[in-house]
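re the bet — no i am not wrong, look at it urself. input seq straight from the record:
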Amino acid sequence: MPVNFALALHGGAGPIRNSDTSREEAHMGALVDEGYALLDGGASALDVVVHMIQGMETAGFYIAGKGAAPNRDGDYELDASIMDGTHRCAGAVCALQGFVSPIAAARAVMEHTPHVLLAGAGAAQFCAAQGLETIDDPAGYYTPAAQSGADTDALAHGTVGCVVLDREGHLCAGTSTGGVLNKMPGRVGDSPLIGAGTWADERVAVSCTGQGEFFIRAAVAADISARMAYAGQSIDAAGAGALADMQKQGGDGGLIAVDAKGNITLPYISHGMRRAARTSAGWREVAVFR
């Protein structure tokens, strides 16, 4: 018998309370329903994760893809990662410039190289060889979310991500970001780092969002799986515990995770977290605040 299937999305933690997030909520609600239909039709976890994140990258509503924030020099350096839990295959790019979909680039690294992470000019050269869609006019393409009224605090938490359990019991996670407004050139956060911002194995798939430096120091994404494996914690307890450990370092943010039974957790320790989730058991949520 097929196992239950489930998926969750996030559009970043830390939006300012009482800000108007109706546009993002409507978009994520439609997107999670689309992902549900794909899974119901037998699509793989990997394909759905990429499709969902590309939908957020091209929307321009989030600090990822089209909505990415420029760095201190006015350039757009984007990061992304993906991990297939079945075989623990992973791919990532960081400080990537000139390409429409960082998550597609991360998947290409996973599937077409022996490596996990490619950076900067080397990543761009690889993406060009793979024929990935380019951006000829960055100034004309990017529409930073800062233009829609978000401030620096919100931009510090603008990652997008997706976690999926498919009908075959496969888990997958992906994360994509444009980084922090006015970040130093070359700055890399947790989003492209396997174990910090993204993780998937036979137990759980995780995508994080928040102040990346603190998620790196706490290895939040992999810590959740470790808590489940070694301490026997539930996905809820593991997610909350990993975030609490990160908070001790001085950071804030949130995460989405799904386990091999289709249980989902969506914890955050910030003003809010743009999120959407749906399971084959009939549960659906689209929310930003508590």
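see?? Residues 22-40 form the longest helix (19 residues). told u. also The CA atoms of residues 81 and 193 lie 7 Å apart. so pay up
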